[in-house]
Design a protein that fits this description.
Glutaredoxin; globular
C-alpha cells in the first residue's frame, strides 16, 4: 500500500524509533523516513512532539502521533493490509500490551543500565546483569505461553510484543559484547534464541537492526568518559 502521506521521525540507535518502521514494513505501507540528529533538535520534531521532544514521531496526513507503542497501535488500526499486530481476542490483546509495557518500563532499563555501567566501569553491573537475565527468563516463559508453539509472540507472524522486544536486540548484543556474556542463549533461553534469529532475518526487520559495532561506538560516545 502506497502512503506517501506517512513520515517517521527517528534516530538510528533508538529501538523505539525502529518500531513504527518495522510495523509499516509489515503492513506494506510506504513512508518517508527522516533521521533526527538532535544537533540541534529539528524544528519539525519540536513542532511534532512539543511535550517530550523525542523520537519517534509518526506524521500521518499532517497529524503527529507520538510514543512508539501508541504509534504501533495506531498503525494496526489504520492500515489493514498485512497481518494484525495485536490479537483479536480482548484477553490476548491485554496480555500483549502488558508484556510490551513490561519491556519498556522495567526490562529495557536494565539493558541500558548494564551498558552504561560497563562503559563507565562501575561496580553496579552485577545487579543489572541479574535484572536482564531474570527478565529474559520471564520473557522466555511468556513466549512459550503466548506463541502457542509457533514462531513468534504473534503466532505465525510478527506481532506487537515481537516488535517491542525485537527492536531491543541491537542493544542486547552491545551488552553481550561489553560483558562477554550471552544473555540470549540456546541453553538458557532456547525459545527466545530461536525467535531472535527468526525475527532478525525477517524482510521487514533485517535492514533496520543496527550493526553491533556501530551501536557499540555510539554507546561509547554517549556513556564514555570525556577525553582528557
Amino acid at each position: 500500500m502506497a502512503a506517501t502521506n506517512v513520515k517517521i521521525i527517528g534516530a538510528w540507535p533508538s529501538p523505539y524509533a525502529m518500531r513504527p518502521r518495522i510495523a509499516l514494513n509489515l503492513k506494506n505501507v510506504d513512508y518517508e523516513y527522516i533521521e533526527e540528529t538532535f544537533a540541534p533538535t529539528s524544528e519539525l520534531l519540536l513542532k511534532s512532539n512539543p511535550v517530550h521532544k523525542k523520537v519517534p514521531v509518526m506524521i500521518h496526513n499532517d497529524q503527529p502521533i507520538c510514543e512508539s507503542l501508541v504509534i504501533l497501535q495506531y498503525i494496526d488500526e489504520v492500515f489493514t493490509s498485512g497481518s494484525s499486530l495485536l490479537p483479536s481476542d480482548p484477553y490476548d490483546r491485554a496480555i500483549a500490551r502488558f508484556w510490551a509495557t513490561y519491556i519498556d518500563n522495567t526490562w529495557y532499563s536494565s539493558v541500558l543500565g548494564i551498558v552504561k555501567a560497563l562503559i563507565e566501569e562501575e561496580k553496579a553491573t552485577t545487579s543489572e546483569g541479574i535484572s536482564i537475565t531474570a527478565g529474559l527468563a520471564l520473557l522466555e516463559k511468556a513466549f512459550e505461553k503466548i506463541s502457542k508453539g509457533k514462531g513468534f509472540f504473534g503466532g505465525e507472524t510478527i506481532g506487537y510484543v515481537d516488535v517491542a522486544l525485537g527492536s531491543c536486540l541491537g542493544w542486547i548484543r552491545v551488552a553481550e559484547t561489553l560483558s562477554g556474556s550471552n544473555y540470549i542463549d540456546e541453553t538458557i533461553t532456547p525459545g527466545l534464541n530461536a525467535w531472535a534469529d527468526r525475527f532478525s532475518s525477517d524482510d521487514a526487520v533485517k535492514d533496520l537492526i543496527p550493526d553491533t559495532q556501530m551501536l557499540l561506538g555510539f554507546a561509547l560516545r554517549r556513556f564514555g568518559s570525556p577525553a582528557k
